[in-house]
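Structure tokens please, single chain.
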Amino acid sequence: MGTGEGDFHRTRLTHSIEVSQIGYGLLEVLHFKKARFHKDAQDWLPARDLIEAACLAHDLGHPPFGHKGEQALHKAMLRHGGFVGNGQTLRILTKLEKYKERGKGLYPTRRLVLAVLKYPRSMETFNLDSYVKKPPKSFHQDEEGVVTWAIDGFSAADQERLIASADGKRAHHSLDCSILELADDIAYGVHDIEDIVARGLATASDVEKEIVEAFKKMIASVWMDLTRN
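Here you go.
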């Protein structure tokens, strides 16, 4: 919808801050309920600092102009391995951003790498002739070593599960990444609704009606599945 000046309009920075706050809130709920759904939850739930770091970093590699910018860069770099925003995030964290030594990135932990690894499949495994207009959901081939290091502690079977795909999309990712993605979806979903209302494209009552109807259909579908089984 375009951008403008003022407190209302979001940027990558304000969006990432909101995602980190939502991610922190989701984690607080999980910590609060941990004793009720799993006695060992404390051992595998992520630290609060890790979730905040992952949420703040999740869009670092995304260029200006959103997905259109990503597609333009991918087309320009197609002969050199292509470009994908999520892969660039991984590259910035592990190589480009200087912390102590150039070329070493910010020294992220394995768990942080896995938290931002939304698509654990190398771009090299795709036929880029089929992805001329937009890049596949993947990471850059140059970061193959980083990903291998991050999953080094997994069993061979779990490594296979992580990179498995279903219908062309990744089938699994880490718990931390699941929290990050949910926080991201909540943040930009609310942004979109606020933008629609603020720009006069729909009224608040219209949006409320659509949401209620969507929830009714979703609940009916879930109930049908439950009663069928």
